[in-house]
Design brief:
This protein is mainly α. It has 6 helices and no strands.
């Protein structure tokens, strides 16, 4: 195969480690696998939800506290007072929203990386993958509180991972195939297509080679006749 200037296409990843490495590798269109894109998307969504969860209550509380604490203060007009209250709320929205945002985004990212990694490595999607990912992520977030925190985080994470994983599996089942099944099908189809292209190129090259050698042989015969 190498003598023709191109080699036989590589077969799809066979081992768990090869499949894991493929998660961070771009394809011919310079795009990352769907699983990797989903990890990034879910982390961004989690960060947005966390910001709203932490920021909106803080905004309302800060605005209320400002209004109550500034009863005796003088403002130029009502609009000035309302703007000042909104600015106080906005500062609190940014401050507390950010605190929740990065925590939720990191939790979701770690959870999805571990659950996706387990599914890809084992080449199957099971509820145990999500339970394990949740337990690991929960323990990681609470380990700074010592052994009780570690145990509490482990149990909380597992309790979070099971319904979250169940929801993901239901959505995938409704779609007709899991991400692993879809990925394996696409890999197999791409490999078969590349293999067919390679085999046709090999055939064309061999035919051209035979034609070239026969033409060369004919030329030598004609030259010998002329001599």
């Amino acid at each position: 195969g190498g003598g023709h200037g191109f080699s036989r296409p590589a077969p799809p990843p066979q081992t768990g480690w090869e499949r894991l490495c493929e998660l961070w590798r771009r394809d011919e269109l310079q795009q990352y696998p769907e699983e990797t894109v989903n990890i990034i998307k879910s982390a961004f969504t989690g960060g947005l939800v966390g910001w709203l969860y932490g920021g909106l209550p803080a905004f309302r509380q800060a605005r209320t506290a400002f209004i109550e604490g500034s009863q005796g203060e003088l403002f130029q007009n009502r609009a000035d007072a309302v703007q000042s209250a909104h600015r106080a709320g906005l500062r609190s929205f940014i401050r507390y929203g950010w605190r929740w945002s990065w925590r939720v985004a990191t939790f979701v990212a770690v959870f999805n990386m571990v659950s996706t990694g387990l599914s890809v490595y084992r080449d199957k999607t099971t509820i145990s993958n999500f339970a394990s990912a949740g337990a690991f992520t929960g323990a990681l977030f609470r380990m700074h509180l010592g052994l009780p925190g570690l145990a509490g985080g482990f149990l909380f994470g597992a309790a979070f991972g099971i319904p979250a994983g169940g929801l993901v599996m239901i959505v995938q089942k409704l779609a007709g195939e899991t991400l692993q099944e879809k990925r394996n099908r696409e890999r197999r189809e791409q490999y078969e297509q590349k293999l067919a292209e390679w085999q046709s190129r090999i055939s064309v090259t061999e035919v051209l080679g035979e034609m070239e050698s026969s033409a060369r042989g004919q030329s030598q015969i004609e030259n010998s006749r002329r001599i």
